Amino acid sequence: MIPSSTYRIQFRHDMTFDRAVGLVPYLKQLGISHLYASPIFTATTGSTHGYDITNPNEIDPAIGGRAGFDRLSHALKAEGMGLILDIVPNHMATSLENSLWRDVIENGKNSQYAHYFDIDWSRPITLPFLGDTFENALRAGEITLARSPLTGKPAMVYYDNYYPLTPSSWEGREPQILSLTDEESLTALHNAQPWRLMSWRDASRELSWRRFFEITGLVGVRVEDHRVFDGTHKLILELVHSGAVDGLRIDHVDGLADPEGYLNTLRQLTGPDCYITVEKILGKGEQLPESWPISGTTGYEFIASLAEVLVDDEKLSTLRQAHSQATGHAGEVDAALRDAKGLMVDRNFEGEFTTLVTLGVQIAEDNGEKTDREAFRHALRELLIAFPVYRTYGTADGLPSQDVLLLQKLVSRLSEHDNPPDARSLDLILRMMSGAVAEPSQARAAQFRTRFQQLTGPLMAKSVEDTLFFRRNLDLALNEVGADPAPRAFSLSRFHQEMRIRLSRQPDALLGTSTHDTKRGEDARARLYTLTEAPERWMASLERWRQMNQTQVRFLNDGTAPNAADTWMLYQALAGVWPTTLTPEDTEGLAELEARFVEFTEKALREAKLRTDWIDSNEDYESVVLDYARHLLSPENTLFLQDFYTALQPFIRAGLVNSLTQTIIKLTAPGVPDIYQGSEGLNFSLVDPDNRREPDFAKLVKDLGDENAACFDDEACWRDGRLKQYITSTLLHLRQVKPDVFRYGDWIPLKVEGDRAENVIAYARERDNEALIVMVPRLMFESVTQEINIADDDHWRNTVVTLPDTLSQRRYRDVFSDEIVTPGETLDLTTAAGNIRVLVTA
């Protein structure tokens, strides 16, 4: 069953199944068809997100266990609603609470679960969880022996972690082993284990197992092995077959060795009616493989499409120039991306990269080819840095033809560089990737192919989303998951084209605008788009604010703190997150905002990896910048706060207009709209963990019952989120009444003419005798500087939407006003409520 809409709820923290049961009537009233749950299986104690699973075949007692889950399932079924689960096939937690992982540590390759995890068994299992080297930790007395409180067996203890000793190292002499205290004996015992404890700093170089991105708390799972698939999917399939679960969202599908093979197996076992989507980031213009038996992605690419509507392309160059002047960055995004990817290859993923190099050289030797290791290393590094998408989809049989073509083009482009990589090495990599090697090397080539494909995705994600997007801050709204790292231009025509492709290729995919992984909430992004409409005003304000707070700037040995790039980022981030109703006099509100903003600032500085880092933090620099951020929101900083608040108002108003526009587009575009918890109201969240805070559900429930929520002419109604919630609910219910026009209806761009033609996007959805016409505003900054007055007839005079013959002379109902309209060849915008109009055939 294809949902008409989904509503994402983040379980854990204080959200349990029973609390979710209490929200079911609200979700039903809102117009939701399916609740979409974050991972619910047992995770590490205190997990805040559930992706660190320790037992995939148990529902986490921390959120209510199986009994609580059953109560939620029954409550949803009673309301005619469905349930979608977020599942995590790619990885599990390396916590010792994970009995499978603990068994592998204890028994090494002899463990019954040794095949579950993606481990290089040519060397001991590396456990990079020490604060220093093993030798130093031992010398400091941090490593001892004791019985595990969980199993009663001897274990090597590091603080609260009890690493099990392999039986052959202690059985028959347990008392003697437990009495060991001298360094030499403890070292010998450590060396007798199938594992090695080491510093967390050595993980990027020495790790013997595949992890999730660069997180050593998560180990890769080999679901390509049917025994592992069966063992980790028992409960998932039981819940689907019982009817308790209607759909699955696959986390990080690109991390799997064979995504298509996994999806084919899953589809076969779930049956044709299970709704399946995948978390997959598509590059601009990239499409999902047509052969995947799923409904589509979770919708990151849709966020990128919305930028085509809401960015003022004509003024973007002015903002780029201002950014360059203010920060000293000349807009060389390609070079910045190369630097970020080079850092990831050389440092964060050094171990994975070195493994690939070694494997490639071995294959060359197997084929009787002479290969210089350094030349091969350089060629592979250049290929990884230049790789334009998240991954290819080769299997043991080779690469699909389109992926071979992509690699051939990439190799050709690299060969044209002034200082090209070694041609023989590039040719060898291409042959290994495509499977064109001698028969004895096929197995190793397949391994190289898999490892290469499992590296390019994390490499791209960490380079772009978690490095470049924190270094280059032209407009933070454009630094979103799935966004083009080097956007050149934006256009309505491209947006229409992308919606038609979406209708053709994945009409049942999710349409997301906020998720638990987005860098900022959808309404913060909607506001920050408006910087492209008023770059001069933004720059003038920024200069004033910098002068007002200049006394907080410090000069350190490594440069000014905060420097120009820091301040550009800080003021823009603050502009995006500032609540619509917060005033400078609200000390409690300022304090709440400060706590969130300072946490964001620390993460932003470390993710940029320029003057500080998660690996080596620069405390002096961080301290100064965090104090600067605190000062911005200090109640005593009255001059700045008053100026910031006043100057921000036009951006707030224009952002609220953008908010409704992107909401209406999401709710009428091809696909299944996903409402992230609380985003039916206003969502000004920052990057995680801020975006995972629980919304004020009590307010949302109260507001939905407000009979006066359709208040287009009341700015307070825009600012407190009631209007957005009303529009969301109205269109969600319409989707349930008119499912075919939303799922199958053609996407028809409508021509707008007149004085304000550039300020409107109009389109229709049409199927058989059903039609929907949508007209919403865009680029409204100059029109709302004093108040949200977009309903002013004078503003829209002489602006009309032209209708094709198939849509004219028909009877429509305005879904917001219930007015009946029978347009001729054109629709006059002066009669629309705030120039926001959705008409449906009556």
Describe the structure.
The protein starts with 5 loop residues before the first strand and ends with a strand. It contains 30 helices and 29 strands. The model has no long low-confidence stretch (mean pLDDT 95). It is an alpha/beta fold and 842 residues long.
The biggest sheet amounts to:
8 strands, parallel
Number of helices: 30
Distance separating the two termini: 27 Å
Q: Order of strands across the biggest sheet?
A: 16-15-14-5-2-1-20-17
- Please state the average pLDDT score: 95
Percent helix: 40-55%
Determine Rg (CA atoms, Å): 28 Å
DSSP strand tally: 29
- What shape does the CA trace take? globular
| Low-confidence regions | none
Structural class: alpha/beta
Strand content: 5-15%
Defining traits:
29 strands; 6-stranded antiparallel β-sheet; 30 helices; 842 residues; 8-stranded parallel β-sheet; alpha/beta; 44% helix; globular
Write a brief structural summary.
This protein has 842 residues and is α/β, with parallel strands linked by helices.
Strand-helix topology:
Layout: E1 6-9, H1 17-30, E2 34-37, E3 41-43, E4 53-59, H2 65-78, E5 82-87, E6 91-93, H3 99-107, E7 125-130, H4 134-139, E8 143-147, E9 154-158, E10 161-164, H5 174-178, H6 183-191, E11 195-199, H7 203-206, E12 211-212, E13 215-220, H8 226-232, H9 234-241, E14 247-250, H10 259-270, E15 275-278, E16 296-297, H11 300-310, H12 313-327, H13 333-348, H14 350-366, H15 373-386, H16 401-415, H17 423-434, H18 442-471, H19 492-505, E17 510-511, H20 522-528, H21 535-548, E18 554-556, E19 559-561, H22 564-577, H23 587-608, H24 619-632, H25 638-668, E20 672-676, H26 697-704, H27 715-719, H28 722-737, H29 739-744, E21 746-749, E22 751-754, E23 760-767, E24 770-777, H30 793-796, E25 799-802, E26 812-814, E27 820-821, E28 826-828, E29 837-841
Parallel strand pairs: 1-2, 1-20, 2-5, 5-14, 7-11, 14-15, 15-16, 17-20
Antiparallel strand pairs: 3-4, 6-13, 8-9, 9-10, 12-13, 18-19, 21-23, 22-25, 23-24, 24-29, 25-28, 26-27, 26-29
